[in-house]
Design goal:
Elements (H helix, E strand, L loop, with lengths): L1 E4 L7 H13 L3 E4 L6 H8 L4 E4 L6 H4 L7 E4 L9 H6 L3 E3 L6 H16 L2 H9 L17 E4 L3 H12 L4 E4 L11 E3 L2 H7 L2 E4 L13 H6 L4 E5 L8 H10 L2 E6 L20 E3 L8 H19 L6 E3 L2
Parallel strand pairs: 1-2, 1-3, 3-4, 4-5, 6-7, 6-9, 7-8, 9-10, 10-11, 11-12
Antiparallel strand pairs: 5-13
Length: 317
């Protein structure tokens, strides 16, 4: 089979070759490319592939429909909203993801962002670089703050564990029933969570029911001086509404790792110009450890498919 990697997996050549050597010895062809979002170039690279590997690069239906040999798309990412699943289904293409590879990395960043926001780390760092002091920027402790987790999947559950270790009461909301709820977590409605949480951390996937979930109305329900952390998906939050809440002083701070688009983010984006908003260019998933886990999961998915099985199923063929 012809296997095409459309973008880097962010591991060393040595690690990549460890996985591909066995494939080539078994007669498969493996081609690896650097990321390119030009549609004509992508079509040329992908059109003869039996299997495509990619991370979070958008893959349009117009490209998938031209891949007449394609059997399997192996996504090196948790979310698959950047992939046209309808086109994949039409073309009878199986899809798997790399579920679980970034649980620890994302949860740790959410915790770190909360501490950063509470202690005004970004602002006091800027002060220090310009011979300033902490005057007017004395922060707050995380311990004892009520943390609301929206989306209680694997990442949300791990984030809850980390916040609980800091002595935080935990509220959780999920649109689906939560199995095996930890005894330190109180399941509640979304409205109740927003009214009572000092820190709200988003860990939900991007689906129709979560698009715009944190709109102006819901943001206005949050406690005065609360903090909103988004390491899930950008469109879950109305960015302008969040910027307005920050600029008005209703929210004390926010942290956004994700936006409506992938970085680079336009200079005029409201969150890049809002008060007390920590922004990062979609780094939550990316750590040395998570990239190694991701490669392992992706190639495990690939080997399974070549042996007639499918793991981490998003779409069956």
């Amino acid at each position: 089979m012809k296997i095409v990697l459309l973008e880097s997996l962010a591991v060393s050549d040595e690690v990549l070759q460890k996985y591909t050597r066995d494939l080539e010895q078994k007669g498969h062809t493996f081609c690896a490319y650097s990321r390119c979002e030009d549609e004509a170039t992508l079509c040329e690279r992908a059109k003869d592939a039996d299997i495509l590997l990619l991370a979070n690069m958008p893959l349009k239906g117009s490209i998938i429909r031209q891949c007449t040999h394609l059997q399997f798309i192996d996504v090196a990412f948790t979310g698959v909203d950047h992939l046209d699943l309808q086109a994949a289904e039409e073309m009878h293409v199986a899809v798997s993801n790399a579920s679980g590879y970034s649980n620890e990395s994302v949860a740790e960043l959410a915790l770190g962002m909360a501490i950063d926001c509470l202690r005004n780390v970004e602002a006091v760092s800027a002060r220090c670089r310009h011979q300033g002091t902490k005057e007017g920027l004395v922060g707050r402790e995380l311990g004892g703050k009520t943390v609301g987790i929206i989306g209680f999947g694997k990442i949300g559950r791990r984030a809850a564990e980390l916040f609980h270790a800091f002595g935080c009461p935990i509220l959780a909301y999920d649109s689906n029933p939560i199995a095996q709820m930890p005894d330190y977590v109180q399941q509640t409605s979304l409205d109740e969570l927003l009214r009572h949480a000092d820190v709200v951390s988003l860990h939900c996937p991007l689906v129709e029911s979560t698009r715009g979930l944190m709109n102006a109305e819901r943001i206005s329900m949050m406690k005065h001086r609360a903090i909103l952390i988004n390491t899930s998906r950008g469109p879950v939050v109305d960015s302008q509404a969040l910027a307005d809440a920050l600029n008005s002083g209703h929210l004390a701070a926010a942290a956004a790792d994700v936006f409506e688009m992938e970085p680079p983010i336009p200079r005029e984006h409201p969150l890049l110009n809002a008060k007390n908003c920590l922004v990062t260019p979609h780094i939550a998933f990316a750590s040395e450890e998570s990239m190694l886990r991701r490669a392992e999961i992706v190639f495990d998915n690939l080997y399974a498919f070549l042996h007639g099985e499918q793991k981490n199923v998003i779409l069956l063929r």
